[in-house]
Every structure is written in C-alpha cells, then in structure tokens.
Design a protein that fits this description.
With about 120 residues, the chain is mainly alpha-helical. Helix content is about 50%, strand content about 0%. Among the domains are: about 30 residues; about 35 residues, no CATH class. The longest helix is centred in the N-terminal third of the chain and has 31 residues. It is flat.
C-alpha cells in the first residue's frame, strides 16, 4: 500500500503538538511525591497527638479513645464492636460466591507422538 502525501493545505492546517509525555510524567511524579510527603506528615502528627494527654480526663489520648470505643461497644454499638474485632486481627475473611456457567465449545486436537518416548 502506497503512502499518501499530505497536500499543502493540510500541512498548513497542522497545529504544533504541545503534548509531551515526559513533561506530564514528571508533573505527575512530583504531585505523587508531594502527596506521599503530606500523608506521612499527617500520620506523624496523629502519632504525636495520640501520645498527648487528654485535657478533660488526664488520660493519654490513645487510651481515652480506646476506652470510648469499648464503652460504646458495651452499650450495644455494633460498629464499635466491629472496630475492636478488626483491630485485634479477628476480622472474618470475606467470602464471595460466583454463580453461573461457562460455555466452552469443544475443541479437537491431534496428539502427536513424542520422539524418544519409547526409550523411557
């Protein structure tokens, strides 16, 4: 098949392509790094806040939060119980059942003899 040449009017209508994959990839990578740093900083701040004392109770925040969840679970809050169970590593595995049928048309193939098989 022969290649078609572009006419002069088609060439004149062409616009410069400003789409540059490398530049886009660099920008995406930079944003990804920024987001990871932001998430890491947030996690570090939460770690610090959990170790501080609660001004109302005088307890460490981590302990106060744990006590609050336990109290809610004792009162019958199922979501609080679920949080405790999952945090302790006793979360049941999610089971999914797939139903249906697969229709695979029968195929025929010819079995070829293997050379040297008689020697075994």
């Amino acid at each position: 098949m022969a290649k078609r040449k572009m006419t002069e009017s088609q060439l004149a209508n062409l616009k410069p392509n400003s789409f540059n994959n490398r530049e886009i990839a660099k920008k995406a990578q930079k944003k990804s790094v920024e987001k990871r740093k932001e998430n890491k900083t947030l996690a570090q701040l939460l770690e610090i806040a959990l170790k501080l004392q609660n001004e109302e109770t005088g307890e460490v925040n981590e302990i106060a939060m744990t006590n609050a969840i336990i109290k809610r679970a004792i009162k019958g809050d199922v979501s609080a119980y679920t949080v405790i169970r999952d945090t302790m590593g006793q979360k049941p595995t999610d089971k999914q059942e797939i139903t249906g049928s697969v229709n695979i048309p029968p195929t025929t193939f010819k079995i070829q003899p293997v050379k040297g098989i008689d020697e075994l």
